[in-house]
User: Fold this.
Amino acid sequence: MYLRCLRNLHSYRLLSAGLCLLAFSACQREKRELRPSPTRLVVFSDAARQSDIQPGGRQSQPVVANPSHGSAYEISEGARLYDWYNCSGCHAGGGGGMGPPLIKTDWIYGGEPANIFDTIVKGRPNGMPAWGNRIPEYQVWQLVSYVRSLNNLEPTSATPARTDTIQQDTAGLRPRPTGVASSGVTK
Amino acid sequence: MHIKTAPGIAFGALSLGWLLFAQIQNQPDDGQWVMPAKNFASTRFSTLTQINTSNVKDLKLAWTFSTGLTRGHESAPLIVNDTMYIVTPWPNLLYALDLKQPGGTLKWTYSPSPSASSQGVACCDVVNRGGAYYKGRIYYNTLDMHTVAVDANTGKEVWKATLGDINRGETLTMAPLIVKGKVLVGNSGGEMGVRGWLAGLDAENGKLLWRAYATGPDKDVLIGPNFKPFYKQDQGSELGTKTWQGDQWKTGGGTGWSWISYDPELDLIYYGTANPGPWNPDQRPGDNKWTSTLFARRPDTGEAIWAYQTNPHDVHDYDDVNENILLDLTINGRLRKVLAHPDRNARMYIMDRATGELISAEPFAFENTTESVDLKTGELKLNPSKITGSKTVRDICPAAPGGKDWQPSAFSPKTGWIYLPHNNLCMEFQGTQANYIAGTPYLGAKVRMYPGPGGHRGEFSAWDPVKAKTVWSVKEMFPAWSGTVVTAGDVVFYGTMEGWFKALDARTGTLLWQFKTGSGIISQPVTYKGPDGKQYVAVLSGVGGWAGATVAGGLNAKKDGTAALGFGNAMADLPDHTTKGGMLYVFALP
Assistant:
């Protein structure tokens, strides 16, 4: 089903990207009852653009509809998958570690849903794994929504209050602002 | 580097009578620095005396060199034949600087072009701990699982060996040690469900001669008839599979990412294996041998001679990889060949290095996770209230980076003390279910660290290995994450994560001199004699590593304390104190 959609998408090249993606997300909804397929061949065209410079003048960026957008259920699924696929191992709870923070304002590869989708499916050169063969497409969208929700880019009505995994107010565990200055010898 | 086993002469005058300096004597100090730990015994002691306690206050910056990189710089510069060699973090460049030219002119740069993707599987920044010189070549590891041999004169690659696959989460960050024509290399990736190993390569051509795994069947661990562990719990066959459930040993960690020492007389190499995986201990019942274990092996074959599992069934991420300083000490009236091993669990293990018998194991930093080490049975008694699992446990001290992490200590035969840069950190640990996907983290833990008692996060102290106690200690705001070097001039050097490079009086701990470098220091300082006959001290500045990830990786630890495996919480304010940037600083007297 999904592949047929893509084939359509290719044969109607003249359709605007927006229309294509409408068709594509409609297929996506249908697909949900079927066995999920790997996410290999998604083509976003200009919607996953990564440059602010467009020769000949700025064009508005086509918008890809994220099928998980604004759904509390999909976002909480995204949160679960974020641990299940070990995103949390590299990005922690969004603060980062082996990978960059995902609670951020300056995205390396863009923060639009299509950009984050691309990041997850294709990977990124400095060590972000390419998950295309591993994560079914609808789950990628759930992850996209969850990652965006960390940055308040999903409607608050759909975003759960952030769970503090260790149930304790850890603000008190932070180093005091002044810290302890390097000091003399103790014997 | 021509290390002779013939007895040397240099040290008689400096000795305190109760010390024998076999290893140091074997390597008369010629003012060079050919391997990160200075010598096989890993003492990081230099016989140079031009810079000493009375004149170090006049130390001045001589020249600098920018590495052009901004991740954590952990390596030790090497100085051989009037050339300085610097190995950088990823992309693992090797710079050769001509010391005969004023200001250390760049002779050549060698670039091994490691895979960019390897950066994503390096647990704790894309660091490299340096290279080693041997018979006209520089040997070092690249993050993406290669060992290279480079002609020290021309910078031409002689060979490049592939030792593993980053798709399994393996990387290489350690500095190799070259012993009897064998390049000894161990893998990193204990946080990724990697199976740990130490390998011996032929220095001539890079051919793999042996590989000793840390887990699995005896034949893989290179355990044979000559394996004689001192304590009962380490004796027996096939413990590398029997102390695990099912196939868990295949993803069980025990990597060899840190230091190796060598005793030419006993013909034994010493190193420790890292933590078991995953971090959540409830997912791997059993002792999990041979993770978090000290090994003595033959350098020619890798054959295991003895082993002591320091932290059986580790429940705190206490790797056993810290350095082993080889010393000959008179303890209770008996001359003992010992190794001194400051463990992650905050205890200083003094062991007979011929047999693996414990002599002492006293805490050198604040800790509440262990109750005792029985010197008769070798048994480590844990504090039951600090044992982690699929639950939340608070106020665990030391935290996962341990009382001390990789930052190597030094030993002065003049004072008889070990100089220890270390940590003062505690943590809370919540065990979760880890899911193994090759090439991704295999952790099962959410951790937050914070400063230990007193509020300071680091300390630099002098430890008496005979009396097994601290002599003096200096507090640091941040973990003391740099290595150290001590000299016959009774000066000890180290750097802080704010960027101060400090010289202390080795006898009293008094601060004699300091210089503020451009970025935090997490590297290994060295000292050498230049072609002009002057003594120089060199150190790389450039914050990062696990402790400095909040700066080097631009983490957002203020919003999420679990950043950097929980180290972020303790280092959330580091960006307010330093910025990134790799630069070599070289100092001399005017």
